[in-house]
Amino acid sequence: MVGDALWYEAAQVVGITNALNVGADGLGASGLTPVEPAGASAEVRAVFEDVQAFYGSAEVPAPFRLIAHDPGYLADVWAATRHAFGDNRLSRRLKEALAFAVSLTSRSAFGSAFHLAEMRRLGVGERGVMEVVGVTQMFSSYTKIADTLALEADMADIAPVDPTPAPGS
Predict the structure, then answer these.
(1) For residues 93 and 133, what is the distance between their CA atoms, to the nearest angstrom?
(2) Does residue 154 sit within a domain?
(3) In which band, very low, low, confident or very high, does the pLDDT at 128 lie, cut at 50, 70 and 90?
(4) Is residue 165 domain-resident?
C-alpha cells in the first residue's frame, strides 16, 4: 500500500469531488434552500468558519451550505474534504487541477467553476488551465471512443488484476 499512496491520495480527491458536485448540482437543482451562516447553529457556524478559512473566502461554498441541514453529515463531509485536499504527497494545487478535470468530465457546473477559481487562486495561469483542459479532453475522448467500439483492455499482461482485498476490508 505504501507504494500506492499517491494513487490513494488522488482517489480520495476524486471521490470527495464527486460528492461535493452531487451535493451542489443535485441538491441545488432540487430546490433545497442552502443554510445561511447568520441563521445557522453554533455547530454549523464553526464548520462554516473552518471552510472559509481553508478556502480563504468570505463565502461558504454551495455544497456545504446545502448539506448543513444535517450538522453531523456536514462535519463528516468537511473533514473528508479537508483531509483529501490538504497538502500531503500531492500538492493542493495538483489536487485542485484533478478536481477541475473530474468536474469537467462529469459536467458539474458547480465543480468546474469552483475548482477553476481555486486553481487560479493557487496561482495556476491560463496556460496551466488550458493544459488541464487539453489533457482532460484527450483522455475523455479516448475513453468515449473505446466505449463506443466496446474495446477490451489489452494491458492484462502489463498490469494483471490484483486479487488482494481493498485496504481496510
Answers:
(1) 15
(2) no
(3) very high
(4) no
